[in-house]
Design brief:
Helix 2 runs antiparallel to helix 3. Helix 8 links the parallel strand 1 and strand 2. The longest helix has 34 residues. By secondary structure, the protein is mainly alpha-helical. A three-stranded parallel sheet has the order 1-2-3. It is globular and about 60 Å long. The two termini are 28 Å apart.
Length: 237
Amino acid sequence: LLAEGLLSVAGRCRSARESLDPAAAEYAEKRDFYESLEIVCAALIRFAGRYADLAESMAAGLGPSDREAARRRELETVARVCRRVPAKPASDFREALQFVYFIQLALQLETNGLAICLGRMDVNLGPHYSRDIAEGRLSEAEAMELLECFFLKLNEIDKIYSNNATRFLQGPAHGQCITVGGVDGKGGDATNEMSYLILDADRDVRLVQPDIAVRVHSASPEELLRRVKEAGARLYV
């Protein structure tokens, strides 16, 4: 999704739907399936657009002071990012992180979320981070701030239980697990700088979510093991 964007996904679904044979036995089922995917993609793009609208409205209401000018620039950046993703591919780390959050939020809203895992964020976001760092568009401190804000947002998602169940199951949606480390498709070590940022962000924020799972193998870097040790019992290894 990060590399393609939802407009492209919707276009592929539309092409598949239009190429179906109306005389085929499964025509109606497949037609409805592809059409449902188009609807979901369009809905997610409109959903992100509402955030962009709000950010622009908030920015327009700010005054000329230095503090409000700084906040206006932040809100204008938020609006720009939300206009692009998830409709289009993520072009940098900030957009990739926002893309992931929109997908995560949509899944939670649709399923009253439980165990909606974020997967291998270090593998998925690592290239965006490395490219931004190399090209001078982002600093490590800025990336850490964005990642920690992302963790805070994950804790805003609540799972709604019955009154009786709430006595035992309280707090944010559980099981939003991020996996770091492990191996790549060729068996090589997959640990990267984003792996360490995720561990450090979790150590700093120290809230209920996300859960962190660490994949360890015979060639895992010593630094990864050290960071895991620092994080302690909050991790699943």
